[in-house]
UniProtKB/TrEMBL annotation:
Its cofactor is pyridoxal 5'-phosphate. This is cysteine-S-conjugate beta-lyase. It comes from Harryflintia acetispora. It holds the Pfam family Aminotran_1_2. Residues 40-374 form the Aminotransferase class I/classII large domain. Keywords: Lyase, Pyridoxal phosphate. SUPFAM superfamilies: PLP-dependent transferases. One of its GO terms (molecular function) is pyridoxal phosphate binding. Belongs to the class-II pyridoxal-phosphate-dependent aminotransferase family. MalY/PatB cystathionine beta-lyase subfamily. It is an enzyme of class 4 (lyase). Its EC number is 4.4.1.13. InterPro entries: Aminotransferase_I/II_large, C-S_lyase_PatB-like, Class-II_PLP-Dep_Aminotrans, PyrdxlP-dep_Trfase, PyrdxlP-dep_Trfase_major, PyrdxlP-dep_Trfase_small.
Amino acid sequence: MKKSDLDRVYDRSGTQCIKWEHLPPDAPEGALPLWVADMDFPCAQPILDALHERIEQKIFGYTEYDTPACKGAVTGWFRRRFGWEIDPAHIFFSPAVIPAMAYFIDALTAPGDGVLIQRPVYYPFTNIILGGGRRVVNNPLRYRGGAYEMDFGDLERKLADPGTKGMILCSPHNPVGRVWSEEELREVVRLCSRYGRWILADEIHCDLVRREERHHPILKVCPEYADHIVVCTAPTKSFNLAGLQVSNIIIPGAAFQEVWRRQAEARFAISTDNPLGFAAMAAAYNRCEDWLDTVNEYIDDNIRFAREYLEKRLPKAVMVKAQGTYLIWVDLRAYCADSKRLRELMVRRAGVVLDEGDIFGKEGSGFERINAACPRCVLAGCLERMAGALNEGSLLISSS
Ligand SMILES: Cc1ncc(COP(=O)(O)O)c(C=O)c1O
C-alpha cells in the first residue's frame, strides 16, 4: 500500500458503523464525524485475504485461542516491534480490553474501594470503576505550556491512601496523546510498589506513535514488578479491527492468572476466540507491519497538516503535542471557554461531531478530541468547518 492510497474516501454507509451512522440526534444532515476511535481506512489486504479464506471454510464454531499459531502471532509481534519477550503462557484472550479491566477491578477490589486514574482520560475507565460501586481516585495530569505530565507528588499521596487499591495506566494516553518515557514508567512502578498497589496498563494504542517517539511496554521496563501488573493489548486500534473483538491480556503473575481464570473464564465464561477475530489478528501481526508503518506516516502527516492549519486559521487554539494515538487534542478555551456552548458550536454550527473534552473529565473542558485516522480531505473539511464556526462564534460570544 502507498501512503496516497489513504487519501481515498470510503463510503461506510450501510455497515452500521457507529462513527458515521449513529451520530448524536442533534447532528445536522451531512455532519462530519471525527469522534469514535476507529479508522476510516480499509484494512490491510493480507487481513482481508485471511478473512476471505476463513469464510470459505464456511463453518464458524467454537475456536481455541490457546494455540501456537495464535500466541505465536502475538509474541512475534511484540518481540519484533518492541523487543519485548512475552511468555505465551501469560497471554489470555478477551474480546475487548475494557471488559477485561472491569473483571479485574471487580475481582481485586470491594465496593467502596478506590481505583486511581489520570484525567482527562478515556471515559470508560470511570464507567467501569463506578459501575461496580468502586470509587474514582483522580490523579489529574498537569497541563503546562501546551503539554501534559504526571503529577507524581499527588500520585504518591493518593497511592498512599489505604483505600486506593490500584491504578489504571493509559499508555499511550488517550486523549492527551502522551507516550510515557521509561523514567516516567519507572516512577509510577516505584510508587505503586512502595504502597503495594497493582497496575492495569492499557497499552491498546502502543502501535500508534509518531515518527520520533517510542512506546515502552511497562512489563519490559519494569519486569521486577510483573506480578502486580496486567497489560491489556489488542490489534484492534492498530489494524482497525475493533468490530472483530479480539484482545490479548498479558498476565505474568500466578495469583493474577488465577484471578483471571476464576473471574473471566469460570464466572463470565470468556475463553473462546471468535474465528474471524483470530484470522484477522494472525494476519495483522504476521503480515501487516508495512501497512501499519504507512498508516503511521500518514497520520504523522495529518497531524502536521492540522497543526499548520490551526496555526493559520485558529491561531489561539493550542494543539497539544501528539506523541501517540491517532487523536488530536486541542485546547479551544481561547475561543469558547463554556464547554456546553463549544459543543453547540461544533455540532450545530460547524456540523462536526468530535469528542468533547469534558467527557474525559472536567480537566478536558474546553478541549476537543479530533480523530485524525481519516483521509486528509475529511480532516481538512472538519478543520475548515471548525475555523468557520469559531471565528464567527467568537464574535458572537464577545458581542453577546
Ligand atoms: C485507551 C483505550 N482503551 C480501550 C479502548 C477500547 O478498547 P476495547 O474496544 O478493546 O474495549 C479504547 C478505544 O478507543 C481506548 O482508547
